[in-house]
Write a structure and sequence with these properties.
By secondary structure, this protein is an alpha+beta fold. It is built from 12 helices and 7 strands. The strands form 2 sheets. Strands 6-5-4-3-7 form a 5-stranded antiparallel sheet. The longest helix has 21 residues.
């Protein structure tokens, strides 16, 4: 049997994010233009975190220490892979990545203050070693890519899950729960716990998503926490970062318009609604946004 090979490529070495907003914006736009197989998920997460720090006038973390730790974790996983003459079994891949993240890196899933905003910021979680599912999932993805393993995030609602594949099969697991494998009945339990007893599994929930979509999901977690706490200006900053990665997303442009309108920034709302109309994929949604744009234009005039 031919060896199972990931369609993604081994990531380039991590480098410290630039220290100016202009350079970070340029870097993130460059990430957007890369081949999906080359999207540097961990590098993008570090760059987004650095931009968030500058936007929030917070001190930048010591990224040299962060990168050193990430390299130590990758080397630990790589040394184990080198022992095998062929590709390791998929369950052993998951176990060894978990050791890299949770023993070498000493990272743990969050069990307290789950909704606190600082727990969604990537720089903060790297420093305090207590991370949300998407953030710890990004560490798993980066390490798996470094070992040339096949891994992807899933389109599962509420909980972030990963899937690894190899010659001998595939495993779905929860990166924030000790990389515990998740069987079909576990998926149903998780879904009902987070979405209610009436929720039912759908095939789309186990569809793989791109590394960029995983990164966008991390930023959305930060945005939702900012909105929940009434920090509208910060939510707009998150949306601006999202649009650097996905400028053709009409739904995000609509969100930007609504937030600007709520803050009284009518001109900015008009510009955002115009972008939303131009990029919205669904005709019904486009029609609703056009109505919002017309109302905002009337208010502006």
């Amino acid at each position: 049997m031919d060896e199972f090979v990931s369609e993604h490529r081994v990531p380039r070495p991590l480098i410290a994010p630039p220290r100016t907003e202009r350079e970070l914006v340029a870097r993130l736009r460059a990430h957007r233009c890369t081949d999906p197989r080359d999207f540097p998920i961990l590098q993008a997460a570090l760059d987004l975190s650095a931009l968030a720090c500058l936007q929030g006038e917070r001190t930048l973390p010591d990224f040299a220490d962060v990168i050193e730790l990430m390299n130590e974790m990758a080397n630990f996983a790589g040394e184990w892979v080198a022992v095998y003459e062929a590709e390791p079994p998929v369950e052993e891949q998951v176990e060894w990545l978990a050791q890299s993240v949770m023993e070498v890196g000493a990272f743990r899933g969050i069990v307290q203050n789950y909704d606190a905003s600082h727990n969604a910021d990537f720089a903060s979680v790297i420093q305090n070693r207590h991370v949300l599912p998407v953030s710890i999932g990004i560490l798993f993805i980066h390490l798996a890519r470094s070992c040339n393993f096949s891994i992807e995030g899933l389109n599962f609602p509420s909980s972030f899950l990963l899937r690894m594949e190899a010659e001998d099969g595939s495993v779905i697991f929860d990166p924030s729960a000790g990389a515990t494998p998740v069987a079909a009945h576990d998926l149903r339990t998780i879904l009902k716990r987070h979405c209610g007893e009436t929720a039912e599994l759908d095939l789309s929930f186990t569809r793989g998503i791109s590394d960029m979509d995983v990164t966008i999901r991390m930023e959305n977690a930060i945005k939702l926490r900012a909105l929940r706490e009434g920090r509208m200006a910060e939510a707009i900053q998150v949306i601006e970062r999202l649009l650097l990665l996905d400028p053709g997303n009409g739904v995000v442009w609509k969100e930007a318009g609504l937030l600007h309108w709520e803050l009284g920034n009518t001109r900015a709302a008009v510009l955002a609604f115009e972008h939303a109309v131009a990029t919205m994929q669904e005709p019904a949604l486009c029609s609703r946004v056009q109505s919002l744009l017309d109302e905002a234009l009337c208010q502006l005039n």
